[in-house]
Predict the 3D structure of the following.
Amino acid sequence: MSLLALGLNHRTAPLEVRERVVFAPERLPVALQELSQVRGVSEATIISTCNRTEIYCDAAHTANSEIAAWLGAFHAMAPSDVDPYLFSLADHEAVRHLLRVSSGLDSLVLGEPQILGQIKSAYEIARSNGTIGAQLNRLFQYAFSVAKQVRTDTDIGANPVSVAFSAVALAKQIFGDLDEATALLIGAGDTIELSLRHLQSQRIGQVIVANRTLARAQTLASEANVRAITLSDLPKVLHEADLVISSTASPLPILGKGAVERALKQRKHRPMLMVDIAVPRDIEPQVNELDDVFLYAVDDLQTVIEENLASRREAATLAEEIIDSQVERFMSWLRSLDSVTTIRGFREHADKLRLEVQNRALEMAKQGKSTEEVVEFVGRTLLNKLLHTPTRRLRQAGEEGDEELLRAAQQLLGGWNEIE
């Protein structure tokens, strides 16, 4: 059996292919059961996110083509639609890949932490569905441990590299603690949702979500227990906001200089941070002319992101060194399993011979044979039975010139003969 990793991700496949092989959460149990029935597969886990669908198996070396065929068939895709985008890794490289993915080194955003939670979720689903055994259990637990070590021993996740996180980090730099601050989020897309999560992780005091469609804002607000308004209500609440993050698809600015100026008067000129992530911009550039306003556009944040990415790339070098050493450590453990099986088999064989000789010796004793005769029989018979097969194989190795086996035997049996 072998550890196999097979699948596709943002490095090997375009979005239109990746989205076709995503496993919906409700279909994962059925998929795992089907996958575990593929010929040659004994254990299986499926990791499926927007950026990757990857299958990890303890399986026969020859199972790759069967797994790939199953993946395409499950999603009703022709082999020509999926096979060109698949990668396949075995043993050492499969272990390395999972450790890199778990540590955020293979992510679209270098060092992002969300993937580890997604892998843990995939592991739990496979475990609860009975498709994880000793091999994959050890592999995934090891991956979680290595990911933690990488986070602890390097700065791979120390600096923000997403626009949303950078905006929140900027607010923290300006205002310090955010527990008494009010944030106004304009829009309701992925960036605003991510900004909301980051703000909540910083224990933001209050959040207002404004969107063109109230229903969408309410959905986001109900999930996060915040306030929802429409864009038409912005003039009424703008003065409450210490932090404004805006990301809409509006072709025209939503906030003009006059509206912000009126809000500042109501705030008695307490400073306001405004982060305009939208393209085209949601906030008129002239707002930056006002005192007491810190206005950042997406390009301003991009500079911060690039600086932080450079820092993460430096940390990634150290992370790769950690992973290299940990891959070899895991593979050593994996190889030791073969020796355990061999040792167990050899001991069971020797014990079977012992019982045979022991029973013969007891029969001889019952027949009145002397103690010396019985002891001599036991020693001679055990010696012949234990050495018969190894001696025959070593003689054959000598005849065939198999010096590798002869050297291994000499090392195993104690160095009683030097083989040049």
Remarks:
- The first strand starts at residue 2 and ends at 9.
